[in-house]
Amino acid sequence: MALLRFLLVVGVMLLPSPPAQPQWKTLTGLGGPVPEILTPEEIQFARTAWQYFVVNENPETGLVSAVNNFPSTTLWDEGGYLLAMTAAYRLGLITRKEASARLSRVLDSLARIPLFRGQLPNKVYNTKTLKMTDYTNKVTETGVGWSALDIMRLVSGMLVATQEFPEHQVLAQHLINRWELPLLVNAGRFQGIAVRGKAQGQLVQEGRIGYEQYAGQIGLLVGLPVKLAAQYGPILRHQKYRDILIPGDIRTKSTHGVSSVTTSEPFLLEALEVGWTEEAHLVASAVYAAQFYRWRETGTLTSLSEDHIKGKPYFAYNALLVDYTAFVSVTAKRVDVSAKRGFSTKASFGWWALMRDPYSKQLLDAVKHLQSERGWYAGLFEADGSPNEILTLNTNAVVLEALHYKVFGPLYRR
User: Fold this and answer.
1) Domain, as residue range, for 67
2) DSSP string covering 249-287
3) Model's pTM, two decimal places?
């Protein structure tokens, strides 16, 4: 049923060509900025972001590396690529012919990738060979598990791209038909599986505040029974921090074995890709307000997201809240790395596109110089303001999503 719904959704919402002028209308009651044409400077911002995809696309498979010059990718990243490609087309950076050819190569490769246990896509693949790998890009015949959140980001990209390019719907449906999507859901929430060492793997509930709800909104679009996952109310709590309340998740390390992290990224993606619900708007506004509050109280510009890091520890969640501790940065294993807390390029672009107020303008101004010939750098290190000179697909995808939002609103047209 979900597979049929996928085809129906992308079929009935098609628009054959991008509007010549901004056509976005905000969700009733949410207000928000009005659509605007990009300035010449902002067009250059978009060109810089698109350059990442130009230099990192593998010509044989069409997949794009998640990190510059490292032939490895995840479904989360390839979903970002499809969203970035559609944004680039609508913004006039590439022709319809080029965009369609890129989409065709990606879908063809995704239709051929080996699946974890023959059921669902593995978490990581080599962009040259399409083989399953671990996160070090070492080939593994059995795989390292699958992520419901990553799969939903890819589905978001597929929905948006095939809505714009309906000639690829059949191929998109073909590759979706290979996947056992019902395995992603248990009791209204998402579940994933990981394999560590020789362990057989175990199905576990996947997703915490923001990430779960973002994935839930995508899942509902393709008919998955994840209404519970799409809601903030059942898991929402508020952590008092000085004079404000920071949104948090009731599921913490003490209750569920893994710490919950509140950070900007999932709230931005939900708005930029499918639009905020009223509930999401309220929670996201509090996430933004907490970062503004920290700047006002400390003088430190704050724009927090998950980000890759050049050098150890290589990746961090720069968080407003980790369980009950405010404004710390942690690794995926929740090791404190706050000394390398980052100021995020993609979060700055996202908040600027959504808020367009004086503070978000400061955020954007702080990262304008982080352009290179191969794309946007991930951000700055808060401690000394030095650039975090790592180039990633996700950073550049979100930059393009944000610039698209300024002109057209959410990527998916309801």
Assistant:
1) 1-13+60-231
2) ES--HHHHSS--EE-SHHHHHHHHHT---HHHHHHHHHH
3) 0.93
Final residue of a structural domain among 211, 231, 251: 231
Q: Cα angle at 151 between 260 and 210, to 5 degrees?
A: 30
Number of Cβ within 10 Å of residue 281's Cβ equals 21
Neighbours of 68 (CB within 10 A): 18
Residue 53 forms part of a structural domain? no
For the stretch 275-305, pLDDT in tens is: 999 999 999 999 999 999 999 999 999 999 9
Structure tokens at 2: 């979900």
Dist CA 262 CA 62 (whole Å): 33
For tokens 């995808």, what's the residue? 397
> Number of folded domains in the chain?
2
Give the model confidence (pLDDT) of 135-170 as tens digits: 999 999 999 999 999 999 999 999 999 999 999 999
Same domain, 254 and 363: yes
